[in-house]
């Protein structure tokens, strides 16, 4: 079963928060996305355990 949870992260380039879907079945995952506000390429690293998001961090690619 695939479980997706929405998380909100702050863009490090423009400081605006935006939402993204994380797959909480995966313990560690990276998402490569463009900020919907400023368009910068971002790498978002998410750690999950037992169906919950433990932490997330964002860096400018
Ligand atoms: Zn941004």
Features:
two-stranded antiparallel sheet; binds zinc ion; 61 residues; 3-stranded antiparallel sheet; mainly beta; single chain
Could you characterize the architecture of this molecule?
With 61 residues, the protein is an all-beta fold. Helices cover 0% and strands 64% of the residues. It contains no helices and 5 strands. Strands 3-4-5 form a 3-stranded antiparallel sheet, with no helix packed on it. Strands 1-2 form a two-stranded antiparallel ribbon. It is elongated.
What does the oligomeric state look like here?
A: single chain
Our measurement of the CA-to-CA distance between the termini, rounded to an integer number of angstroms, reads 31 Å
How many domains is the backbone divided into? 1
Label the overall shape: elongated
Helix content: under 10%
Provide the spatial order of strands within the biggest beta sheet: 3-4-5
**What does the largest sheet look like?**
3 strands, antiparallel
Compute the number of strand runs.
5
Average residue-wise pLDDT: 94
- Catalogue the ligands: zinc ion
**Low-confidence runs (pLDDT<50, min 5 residues)?**
none
Relative strand content: over 45%
Main structural class:
mainly beta
Radius of gyration from the alpha-carbon trace, in angstroms: 11 Å
In DSSP terms (H or I, runs of 4 or more residues), the helix count works out at: 0
H-E order: EEEEE
């Amino acid at each position: 079963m695939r479980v997706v949870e929405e998380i909100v992260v702050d863009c490090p380039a423009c400081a605006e928060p935006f939402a993204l879907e994380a797959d909480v079945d995966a313990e560690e995952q990276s998402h490569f996305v463009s900020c919907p506000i400023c368009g910068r390429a971002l790498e978002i690293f998410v750690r999950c355990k037992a169906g919950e998001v433990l932490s997330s961090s964002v860096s400018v690619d």
